[in-house]
Amino acid sequence: MADKNTAVKKSGGTREYFRGIKTEMKKVVWPTKKELSSYTSVVILTCAVSALGIWLVDSVFLAALQGILNITF
User: Fold this and answer.
1) What is the 3-state secondary structure (H, E, C) of the chain?
2) 24: left (phi over 0), alpha (psi -120 to 50) or beta
3) Is the distance from CB of 41 to CB of 33 less than 8 angstroms?
4) pLDDT digits (tens, 9 = 90+) for 9-46
5) How much is the pTM?
6) In angstroms, rounded to a whole number, what is the distance separating the alpha carbons of residues 19 and 26?
7) What is the structure's pLDDT at 12?
8) Which long-range contacts (CB under 8 A, 24 or more apart) does 15-21 make?
9) How many Cβ atoms sit within 10 Å of the Cβ of residue 29?
10) Nearest to 11 by CA among 19, 2, 23
11) Does the structure show a pLDDT above 90 at 71?
12) What is the pLDDT of residue 72?
């Protein structure tokens, strides 16, 4: 059983919670507009390439199943 001396200290409440958020938000290093547009481009390109890859694999499996099961549409 846990020792009473090692009990977790209770939080200071809602006000302390929001103070903590404010403190942490000051530590955030926000990207510049140029970095943001670069990161956005990378994300969109990655999504497009992933979607194309999934579509390609799906098409190959569909063609294989149609060939194996003699299904026509």
Assistant:
1) CCCHHHCCCCCCCHHHHHHHHHHHHHHCCCCCHHHHHHHHHHHHHHHHHHHHHHHHHHHHHHHHHHHHHCCCC
2) alpha
3) no
4) 565 799 999 999 999 999 999 999 999 999 999 999 99
5) 0.61
6) 11
7) 73
8) none
9) 4
10) 19
11) no
12) 79
Amino acid occupying residue 4: K
**Sequence letter at residue 50:** S
> Residue 72's closest CA among 57, 62, 61?
62
Tokens of 73: 């549409």
CA 73 to chain centre: 37
What is the identity of the amino acid at 3?
D
Q: Which tokens sit at 28?
A: 């955030």
